[in-house]
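Design job #97: recover the sequence.
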């Protein structure tokens, strides 16, 4: 059982760690949520807070046997290694593979980094973790804008698609476009009926990367296209 005296002395430090983990998770999660990624605000917050809790637990283990005459050792490095291994499976689960195309790599990388930030907080460096979080967010935003600027030198395509009325198809169409390197400038989804959605999509993409993208989209089960046009960017 908890030693209340020890717990009272540790709680302020742990409260700061959890608070910072929550802050960093929210900062990262909002960036993913704004882009409507599968691992959004709640997922990223749970990862940063969870990783921090694991490191806190590794610090609490030696206190379990305090005063009992037993010697209990805890190796935070082993705990961190297990967290990294476990988070790899979670990251892999966000990667969608469809007909040879792989989607969700950036989200998986953000999950991996979120766990590292949580471990950094848990081991006792919350200010450093905040700086890491800012670096990651700035990198995501700046590199996305840079990528858009580079791709806008290519061709602008306009596409009308139809699919079954469900969220999975919406996410899958977005993922295929992003995986192909397209910079989406318009993505309007309207309900045509109870069973069908219409997509009005505009995007820039390099000429080399555009080959086969339309065919990949309409090969998705339940998706078909009506119009495909292009203008020079």
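Job complete. Output follows.
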């Amino acid at each position: 059982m908890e030693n209340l005296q020890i717990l009272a002395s540790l709680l302020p430090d742990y409260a700061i760690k959890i608070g910072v983990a929550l802050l960093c998770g929210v900062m990262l999660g909002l960036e993913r949520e704004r882009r409507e990624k599968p691992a959004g605000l709640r997922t990223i917050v749970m990862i940063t807070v969870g990783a921090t809790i694991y490191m806190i637990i590794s610090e609490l283990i030696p206190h379990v046997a305090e005063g009992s005459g037993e010697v209990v050792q805890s190796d935070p490095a082993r705990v961190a290694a297990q967290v990294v291994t476990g988070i790899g499976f979670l990251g892999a689960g966000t990667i969608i593979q469809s007909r040879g195309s792989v989607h969700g790599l950036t989200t998986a990388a953000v999950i991996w980094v979120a766990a590292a930030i949580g471990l950094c907080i848990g081991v006792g460096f919350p200010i450093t973790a905040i700086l890491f979080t800012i670096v990651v967010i700035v990198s995501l935003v700046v590199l996305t804008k840079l990528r858009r600027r580079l791709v806008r030198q290519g061709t602008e395509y306009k596409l009308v698609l139809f699919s079954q009325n469900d969220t999975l198809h919406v996410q899958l169409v977005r993922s295929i476009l992003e995986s192909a390197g397209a910079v989406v400038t318009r993505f309007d989804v309207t309900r045509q009926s109870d069973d069908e959605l219409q997509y009005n999509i505009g995007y820039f993409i390099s000429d080399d990367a555009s080959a086969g993208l339309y065919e990949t989209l309409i090969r998705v089960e339940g998706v078909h296209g009506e119009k495909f046009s292009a203008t020079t960017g």
